[in-house]
Amino acid sequence: MELLHLQYFSEVAHWKSFTRASQSLHISQPSISKAIRALEERWGVQLFHRQGKTIALTDAGEVILPKVEEFLDQYYRLEADIVSPELRRQGKIVLGVAPMVGTIYLPELLRDFAAAYPYLAIELVERPTAVVEELLENGAVHCGFCIVPTINGDHETLLLPREEVHAFLHKEHPLAANEALTIEDLATTKLITFTNETTLYRNIIRNFQAREMRPQVAIQGYEWSLLAAFADAHVGVTLLPEPLGRFVPQLYPNLVSRPLIDTDLSWRAALVWQEKRYAGTVVELFVEFFRMHQGLDTAASAAHKK
Questions:
Q1: CATH code at position 153
Q2: Cα maximum dimension of the chain
Q3: 173 domain residue, yes or no
Q4: Which of 84, 129, 170, 226 keeps 20 to 30 A from 99, CA to CA?
Q5: How confident is the model at residue 276 (pLDDT cuts 50, 70, 90)?
Q6: Which domain does 236 fall in, by range?
Q7: What is the pLDDT of residues 68-99, one digit of tens each?
Q8: Half-sphere exposure of residue 57, counting CA atoms within 13 Å on the CB side?
């Protein structure tokens, strides 16, 4: 029996699918099936019920799985203790990043992280929150910077401060004469929004629906700077987190920002990761660095565990 066989068994049980376990581990499905058969022959029990594409643990599998996972957890922690701290600071960390989070939060954070750990490469994968969560589940990224609320609650979370959402519009737009805008004001003009799968878009729709109103969505896009460009071209009004106000005037000096009132429309980012999968790795290193960089104490962050 090999350690890999136990890892394959745990992964198949987690995904309830040989195919998804294969994708997560980057191992061929026949290799995983062969490993499971080897365990079943060695232990003299059947581990999974197989019904077409659906699988489930047998009674024996239910008993064995917790013991296997406990063994693997102890092994990973032992391995982490043996590997020197210097070696753990080398390699690569892959970060999933939702729209706007990178612009607002990552430049200074990753500048300082790269200075502290120059031998650790950083790769960014920019996708909407829902996609970042899926990549996190599949093991394609180590950590994700997502917009909350997230869809999957089965991960660790460190919350960043909640930000207001402001309206950005051309200074000659009729609504620019108002010091602040309401949802009712926004219903009178065309909106330039992020795509449907983004958290901010869903929050906008929720606020309109609460008033039994429908927004006039003219254009949807993925890049905040492109949405601002359409607002600058008098297409309509775009809604963005207030911190982007530091960057918008540099690109589009004709745009002005107006706060929203009588609405709970806001925006909040968080760092999410799977602690069990990455215990003792560079992910722990990055999470701790992020916590200290943002001034987040351990007790406060623990309260935000999913």
A1: 3.40.190.10
A2: 77
A3: yes
A4: 170
A5: low
A6: 162-267
A7: 988 888 876 766 555 555 545 557 889 999 88
A8: 15
